[in-house]
Design goal:
three-stranded antiparallel sheet, Aspartate Aminotransferase, domain 1, 462 residues
Amino acid sequence: MSDTPKRSWAEPFKIKMVEPLKMTTREERKKALQEAGYNTFLLRSEDVYIDLLTDSGTNAMSDYQWAGMMLGDEAYAGSKNFYNLENAVQKFYGYKYLVPTHQGRGAEHIISKILIKPGDFVPGNMYFTTTRAHQELAGGNFVDVIIDEAHDPTSLHPFKGNVDLDKVESLIKKVGAKKIPYISIAVTVNMAGGQPVSMENIRAVSKLCRSHGIKVILDATRAVENAYYIKTREKGFEDRTVAQILHEMCSYTDGCTMSGKKDLMVNIGGFLAINDWDVFEEARNMVVLFEGLHTYGGLAGRDLEAMARGIEEAVQYDHIRARIGQVEYVGEKLKALGIPIVQPTGGHAIFLDARKFLPHLKQDQFPAQTLAAELYLESGIRAMERGIVSAGRNKDTGEHYYPKLELVRLTFPRRVYTQAHCDVTVEAVEATFEARNQMKGLKMVYEPKYLRFFQARFEPLA
């Protein structure tokens, strides 16, 4: 188990620049919430006190990264910053070929269009919203093959992100290996509560898939956090560095999609990394159509440089230990108050269990959406729904998906908030919990066609 202390420690950085926060009244927040259709994604950021909506692109870059921004080579083709990023990816992730993209979903789009044919099946260890959307747009069918413990917020399994090999074998027998272009392994698993995957499981998945000619594609968005959990939870890795563990994880896969906006602490950027020349050649052509030339992929040279330097910093033990320790600190505080959360705490976020928080609300009354709205109303803290709204609808029947997990995610940006902000967050969740019996639920009054959780609008139930 983790050797992280139960208490927080001083952050392993000092502050050079500050961004003032706007303090609002409850009446001001009520008006803002109504204008946003009770969807925290539609709030104006200036009306938010502590923003825990996401850790994607919201991190604080270091002086080393900012210095790199000043060295941006903004040539249209052949920017030296591209080659710096390529070298960093090859060194730390181990993949041969690199295609930069504007962010992670650009990489998901490209790999889906290349590998998936209509009618194919794509297994994965729990869906992620944009990943599944691109797989389905390419004509594929997502199949959840995560272990059952992942759907139980109270399970203390140390690697709840693991793939269930029996489920994969069952799918292979049912549809045939030729109908499965690849398996998508997320490390860590966001929708399960930021849960990691063990090295033993990654090895086993790789062995099984390669015996059937099925590719393994890693969602490496938070792979550094996953590497930290392997180091602290899996026997035999105690003395390995985070960088060594990350490299080994990737060695069992054929490529990865990456949103640099998470682990790599940049505000924009991502990449597709691959080992297969033919796939790379197709991706290198396709990126020109959808993102930009293959040496910039929709990014400025300065952004490529910041991402390259972010890779170096992400694998530093003191950084990742403090990053995950901050989340664990909040989790321990909430558990001590009896507030239901997903356990063990994930690497990037605390996930409130909205089912247990609001047991009087039916799932189609959107309890997680309700809870996120009420937390903002109480405190000005912005979190996000991860439940029935995020799950969306079955593309064939049009019916809601009803996930077992109905969660609210409090996502901590890297190097942004202090322990005092963490304490304020705990107090706000506690106050919201005390008022839970007064919450009435919501009805959806506007639903966009794709990824509805971003833009859907709601009204309170009478």
